[in-house]
Amino acid sequence: MKAVQYRTVGGTPEVVEVPVPEPGPGQILLKVTAAGVCHSDIAVMSWTADQLPFPLPLTLGHEGAGIVEALGAGVRGITEGGTYAVYGPWGCGACPTCAQGKENYCPRAADLGIRPPGLGAPGALAEYMIVDDARHLVPLDGLDAVQSVPLTDAGLTPYHAVKGALPKLVPGSTAVVIGTGGLGHVAIQLLRALAPSRVVALDVTEEKLELAGQVGAHETLLSDEGAADEIRRITGGRGAEAVFDFVGASPTVAIATACAAVESDITIVGIGGGAALVGFGVTPYDAAVRAPYWGSRSELYEVLDLARSGAVDVHVETYGIDEAPQVYERLHEGRINGRAVILP
Ligand code: NAD
Ligand code: ZN
Ligand code: ZN
């Protein structure tokens, strides 16, 4: 079968031929029908050999959906031929954190060598993938795999981020979304569905801002040195009650802290290497800064339910598996609008 692999440190993704895997006891073989392409892979591919926590080659792709092709011994509760989305941040499944469905924060996974598909385990950018346990599969139940596969990360991650800030997002409040790409354009829709707040979106090109407006941002602004002042002006000097940074680079983290209100939530989701300077007189009084990772199993069910209600519509660009290396280039250059989805 074809798979898109990151094979050597500093290299670029390659389409290679590998054997179709066989499901062991408890595992499921999924015929992948859709796989989303996330900007985090570009960060992973920029790491040095010392920073990389898993061996290469790695089959990429941590947003996956598909049809169950075969069940390993002892798998129960999964229908052969059924269509499922893959919950990616696999945990041990047995600790108190995993018992709450928060496998993204499993404290034992790393020690046990358990890693998400596409981020250590073989991922979804292939014709078939192995899913380690039935609990990682969530039925799509009528949702289209291509349209909804980005919800497993580009939906789940902002959902978890937004949910944590909801107590701040009362009527009259303002939410700022910095970076309106794969995650950010879904975040805008989640905010509109879950909160009465005014949503202000920032990005660096008019094309991205146009999509941000289409999916529900009340105001769109270029992300430049004047952006924080403009947000203060729009909010009558108060600033934003919640700021979500889907870039996480130094300039955007600076905007995030500069446009935040007293008692606000500043959530840094992007992994662009920027760090917030926090302290008395530096951040607004009582502002909280969070850097969340992905989301819980139950939150994935919630995001998919929201999509079924029509509240979230991912803007998808589709490509064939042979085009995957170019898709990564386009993503790196900021030339994907919404989310790229590969059809293996
Ligand atoms: P993306 O490339 O689809 O979107 C990023 C957007 O940010 C683009 O629209 C780009 O134009 C915009 N941008 C770039 N520089 C900017 C600036 N200075 N100001 C404003 N906008 C700017 O990427 P994505 O897949 O949506 O991922 C977004 C970030 O979130 C990445 O850093 C990714 O690694 C990270 N991520 C984190 C988690 C987590 O769990 N914390 C999960 C998934 C992705
Ligand atoms: Zn991701
Ligand atoms: Zn665990």
TrEMBL record:
Chain ranges of the Enoyl reductase (ER) domain: 10-342
Top-level taxon: Bacteria
Reaction(s) the record says it catalyses: a primary alcohol + NAD(+) = an aldehyde + NADH + H(+); a secondary alcohol + NAD(+) = a ketone + NADH + H(+)
Keyword field contains DNA-binding: no
Protein name: alcohol dehydrogenase
Family in the record: Belongs to the zinc-containing alcohol dehydrogenase family.
Cofactor(s), names only, from the UniProt record: Zn(2+)
EC number: 1.1.1.1
Pfam families reported in the protein's UniProt record: ADH_N, ADH_zinc_N
GO function term, MF aspect, one: zinc ion binding
CDD domains: arabinose_DH_like
Keyword annotations from UniProtKB, A to Z: Metal-binding, Oxidoreductase, Zinc
Gene3D superfamilies: Medium-chain alcohol dehydrogenases, catalytic domain, NAD(P)-binding Rossmann-like Domain
Enzymatic class: oxidoreductase
